[in-house]
Amino acid sequence: MSEVSSDRPPGGGRIAGTQAIGRAFAVLDMFRSAGTDLGVVQISEQLGFTLSTSHRIARALVAEGYLAQGEGRERYRLGVQALLLGQAAQRSLGLQVARPVLQGLAEQTGESINLGLADFDRAVVAQRIESRQALRLSVEVGSSVELHATSMGKALMAFNDDLRRRVLEGPELPALTSRTLTTQAQLAADLEQIKQRGWSIDDEESMLGVRCLAAPIIAPDGVARAAVAVQAPAVRMPDGRFAELGPEVRRAADELARILPL
Questions:
Q1: Which residues are 139's β-sheet partners?
Q2: What pTM value is reported for the model?
Q3: Which of 23, 63, 131, 210 could form a disulfide with 136 if both were Cys (CB 3.0 to 4.6 A apart)?
């Protein structure tokens, strides 16, 4: 597995003289997050591009196979080359070796399991095993989540000094629900507890009605760049279940640390 880094250059990774490339990546990232087809008007409004710029970028990406024409004349969706690139990324990162461990944890807990990677100031869901339960939350592989409001993000921060410093010294923490920790002092105290016990919880902090528990996947250098999380409806995750699941998730994380050369 190639090393996964949570660092990007200042300015969101932009390098002087690469505006066109940056804009094309911004469009592709918008499609990745949306998970559906988009029109040039939506692209223009969300990214602040002129319509002509959005048209030009979309046509260039269609020509290279990274976008394809949607049902409407001015609508687009991700193309075959984007699919192939994503599959190549999975192979290069070596994430396929994690699947048996994630599947085993899903069977033990009966809940959905996410494998997340640190990505600058967010965490990205790289692998997911869906629960077989009828009542479950759907999460797309490739979706990104806030660090301060999720068990996966907090597990990463507790064992990654760069991530923790970036969030604790950064701007105000947005409230996603009434339970979200919105001050750096609250979050810092929570991270200390997480570091002591080895796993974190999301007590409906990112979405009401959903509770999660995560453990960091710690690399040989002692830094967490990935985490594994159990996600369940709050009705199936009472307080007492956290103590039951914590050691199980911690063991899975330790096993993943042995097979994923982070």
A1: none
A2: 0.75
A3: 131
